Amino acid sequence: MSRRPRPPLTLRAAAVIATVVAICFGVAFMVIGSSIARDSLSYLDLARDLTHGRGFGDPSYESATHFPPFTSILVAAVSVTGLSVQTSFGLVNTVALAASVLGVSALFRQAGGRRPGVALVLLLWVAAGGASTTLFSAALSEGLFMAVSIWAVVLTERWAVRASPSTAAIVWVLCAAAVATRYVGVALLIACALRLLLQPGRARRFTAALVPLSAVVPLGVWWLAYHGHQGRDPAFVAKRALSAATVFHSLGALGSWPIGIPYAENNDMVTPAIDRLIRGGLALVAIGMIAAGAWWLFRGWQRHGGALGLLVVVRDRAWLTAVLATAASVGLLVVWRFAIGYHILLRYWTPALLPAAAVGAAYVSLRLEGASPLVLRRATVVGVLLLGANLVLTLYNLAV
């Protein structure tokens, strides 16, 4: 009796598998308990005050204006059901992780990705990778921001191609939620507005670009109302100078991003000498990533006859919003963190780079079309090794 042929993996099946994995890890982190950092205590304090009807009061460590309100509002809304604030935060993170997986899947398809195997590796990396689980295992706002921003990118690109009032309304809501989750969401608003401005032949594109930009208004109203009521200045910003160590640690965090090595944020796991060696290796990886991006831009510049020619070509690409979002976010992170003399943490790099990662995976998928069996086997090995290394870091996050 012959066996039935195994049904082929589809893009939809890859998304379903990865979403289930994301929910399982999210529930596991809920059961174990979210990791608590200093900022976590502030978010939990704010959510607890809202749950008990006390409004926005300053948390234990600094002014509430240091923490945009959407995360605390959402956690408080969930905790009204009777769940503890920490459990509610875990539930929000679980839903956000699943939404991030589905958003990356949509962006992968939008950017032209067609190979389900590549999609599965990408989505499992988002669902259970070391960098993602570092975000979603903690009571922090970066995970929610990642989910909201990735869907804002997807729907802005869809709106740029096919104008729709309903899509415009959803984009505005997502942009407002993003900037009300993390202030760096301003970069997302700028990227979405630029994408709409660059759409060729579109009527009223200047008016359309005002939609994402106006999404900052609700946050501005909240900040002014809170600031005026409390009579306090925004959170204290230390006056520190930019140093070589700041750049070095930022590069180390960037280099650790593909597998989420936690050395980028703490150095108490090994001796200082080994820690410096690991950070140095990660910094070299980061320099390689930056060089690859610069080379891609240089080749495009050469091929299309300068910046204007390159712009004319890329404005019709379905991945333009994603690339603009990553470029704007990275630029704002560098200016902001280096201006105050602090390095860029791994949990800051992850939401900023995720849109570009989805586009890169789609590019790999296109390159593998028609590839020889040997190339496909090598690509499979690379994917398995990447997921295996990430799984080790994820299990570490579960253990600690």
Structure in words:
This protein is mainly alpha-helical. The protein has one domain. It contains 17 helices and no strands. It has helices spanning 11-32, 38-51, 70-79, 85-110, 116-128, 130-136, 142-161, 165-179, 185-198, 205-214, 217-230, 244-256, 272-303, 307-314, 320-339, 346-367, 373-399. The protein is globular and about 65 Å long. Mean pLDDT is 83; it is low at 228-238.
Helices and strands in order:
Elements: H1 11-32, H2 38-51, H3 70-79, H4 85-110, H5 116-128, H6 130-136, H7 142-161, H8 165-179, H9 185-198, H10 205-214, H11 217-230, H12 244-256, H13 272-303, H14 307-314, H15 320-339, H16 346-367, H17 373-399
Features:
400 residues, mainly alpha, globular
How many separate domains make up the residues? Answer: 1
Range of helix content: over 70%
Q: H/E series, N to C?
A: HHHHHHHHHHHHHHHHH
The number of helical runs is 17
- Number of DSSP E strands: 0
Silhouette = globular
Q: Give the averaged pLDDT, no decimals.
A: 83
Major β-sheet, in short? none
Low-confidence stretches: 228-238
Termini, distance in Å?
Answer: 50 Å
Proportion of residues in extended strands = under 5%
